[in-house]
């Protein structure tokens, strides 16, 4: 009975190690696997060197994603988020055709200050 449990535990450990190794290898190849929660929970079983390597690869991938997000956001209207085509004179980004009728940039400090003042309740006179 004890031998069967030990054999089962060894087989489970081998399956888990194979899953982690497969995920690690796919990351090394530059693939973007969708690791499920179970695989992520097994990270604590990897040696520190492997986890650090995985961390570096994920940071590199995240940096690439952030660059794409930034570029795509710079192509969007700063007011509504739709595809922008007209540059704002202040240089904060683009506006779409619909929002271009407004000459105010929502990113400009003056406009933000006006919005804050409009949102604050009036101060009582003493």
Automatic annotation (TrEMBL):
<feature type="coiled-coil region">
    <location>
        <begin position="3"/>
        <end position="30"/>
    </location>
</feature>
<keyword id="KW-0175">Coiled coil</keyword>
<protein>
    <recommendedName>
        <fullName>RING-type domain-containing protein</fullName>
    </recommendedName>
</protein>
<feature type="region of interest" description="Disordered">
    <location>
        <begin position="107"/>
        <end position="126"/>
    </location>
</feature>
């Amino acid at each position: 009975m004890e031998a069967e449990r030990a054999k089962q535990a060894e087989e489970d450990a081998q399956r888990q190690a194979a899953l982690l190794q497969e995920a690690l290898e796919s990351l090394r190849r530059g693939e973007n696997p969708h690791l499920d929660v179970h695989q992520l929970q097994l990270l604590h079983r990897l040696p520190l060197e492997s986890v650090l390597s995985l961390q570096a690869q994920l940071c590199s991938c995240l940096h690439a994603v952030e660059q794409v997000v930034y570029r795509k956001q710079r192509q969007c209207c700063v007011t509504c988020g739709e595809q922008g085509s007209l540059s704002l004179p202040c240089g904060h980004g683009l506006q779409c055709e619909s929002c271009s009728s407004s000459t105010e940039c929502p990113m400009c400090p003056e406009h933000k200050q006006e919005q804050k003042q409009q949102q604050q309740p009036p101060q009582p006179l003493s």
